Amino acid sequence: MAKTKKICIFVLRLLAVAATLSAAVVMATSNQSSSFFGVPVQAKYYYEPAFKFFVIANGIGSVYSFLVLFLPPKSMLWRLVVALDVVITVLLTSSISAAAAIAYVGKKGNSRAGWLPICGQFPKFCNQGMAALILGLGGVLIYMILLLYAIHTVINPLLL
Fold first, then answer.
1. Cβ(88)–Cβ(63) under 8 Å?
2. What are the start-end ranges of the H helices in the chain?
3. CA distance 117 to 108
4. Residues 6+ apart with CB under 8 A from 40
5. What is d(CA 25, CA 157) in angstroms, rounded to the nearest whole number?
6. Nearest Cα to Cα of residue 62 among 155, 157, 143, 150
7. β partners of residue 34
8. How far apart are CA 41 and CA 121, in angstroms?
9. Which tens digits make up the pLDDT trace of 134-149?
10. Is pLDDT of 71 > 60?
11. C-alpha distances in angstroms, 82 versus 7, 52, 53, 135, 149?
12. Cβ neighbours of 73 (radius 10 Å)
């Protein structure tokens, strides 16, 4: 039974690495050029701070989860992993929230502020951003599962 749990956690950590790394790569490679009244215009992720935050947070999450894969199971550092899982989960949640808010404004615009939607002019950029947000959301969900398991393991309710 213990071996099955270890394999499940290892697979979840691998999935977390895959989801967060792919979200960062997809967002980081999103760019598109178009012309607006004869003026060339580009849409790139690094023009928007929320998208930069999303890429950096997912990069940190993927590196962290990759490093935890090599942590010995009997190590006392697993208590630190619980705290770091909380930090990474919150970091990823805040980054996807910020990126989703900007993506919504890019998709729908804001008539009261006078912001026009850009997804009509840059559909490839918007579709790639949406794919990155979906991958990032998958990473957040995996981290939440890992966090709940880590809390359950460290604070065993049967011993209370």
1. no
2. 2-28, 49-68, 78-108, 123-154
3. 5
4. 33, 34
5. 39
6. 143
7. 41
8. 10
9. 999 999 999 999 888 8
10. yes
11. 18, 26, 23, 23, 9
12. 9
Task: Name 47's Cβ contacts closer than 8 Å, sequence gap at least 6.
Answer: none
- In the chain, the amino acid numbered 9 is I
The amino acid occupying position 157 is P
- Given a cut of 50, whether residue 160 has pLDDT beyond it is no
**Helix or strand or coil: residue 4?**
helix
Beta-bridged to residue 136, according to DSSP, are none
- Which amino acid type is present at position 77? L
Is residue 150 a contact partner of residue 57, using CB atoms and an 8 Å limit?
A: no
Number of residues written out for the chain: 160
Give CA–CA dist 92/136, Å, rounded: 8
Question: Maximum Cα–Cα distance for the chain, whole Å?
Answer: 70
Specify the 3-state DSSP secondary structure of 156.
coil
Q: Which two tokens stand for residue 129?
A: 């951003």
- CA separation for the pair 73, 96 (Å, rounded): 30
Q: Are 19 and 138 in contact (CB under 8 A)?
A: yes
How far is residue 112 from each of residues 65, 108, 118, measured CA to CA in Å? 42, 12, 16
